[in-house]
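[09:14] KT: can someone run the structure on this one? pasting the chain below
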Amino acid sequence: MLITHDTRCSLDTVVDLVNTAAEDDATPDGLPDVAALEGFVRKHEISDIGVLSEFDLSAVRKIRSRFAGIFAAPDARAAAGMINDLVAAAGTTPRLTDHDGYDWHVHYFAPGASVADHLAADCGMALAFFVVAGEQERLRRCEAPDCRHAFVDLSRNRSRRYCDSRTCGNRLHVAAYRARRKEAAG
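[09:31] RB: done, structure tokens below
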């Protein structure tokens, strides 16, 4: 599956957005205020965004929960329905652009769109490409019992199980190794 630069950026953005949600009462929300949303917009170089407000923060949080639903979708049909609703509500308006030194690419958000509509349109279309390609199962949640972060499995054989093999994956492998050693020692 060919993933263009702008699709990859949108995938990274949607994964980071979904992962800002508090997993439980003990973890804080990654988007607690407008300043955090502004930082998120800067980090992901989201273009054509004006001054952000509490309304934008609330709208982005709602979009975030809808994206989380797509990562939890049981099958492609369910994911497609959620993506269709999300993208349609954003007022998607595809257009070609070559801004900021990037070659021609497609933006799906309408000019002057809110940050939530921008995210819904561009990130929703990036996820749609996976459903169209029959790759919806690549939209996953970390299998570490204490994590559950979202990620997109871009491995060749679709075998990635953890959001980060250096943290979640390694921690579980070390725990399994220690349990085997303890059992062998009797």
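[09:33] KT: thanks! Residues 24 and 36 are 19 Å apart (CA to CA).
[09:34] RB: yep, looked fine to me
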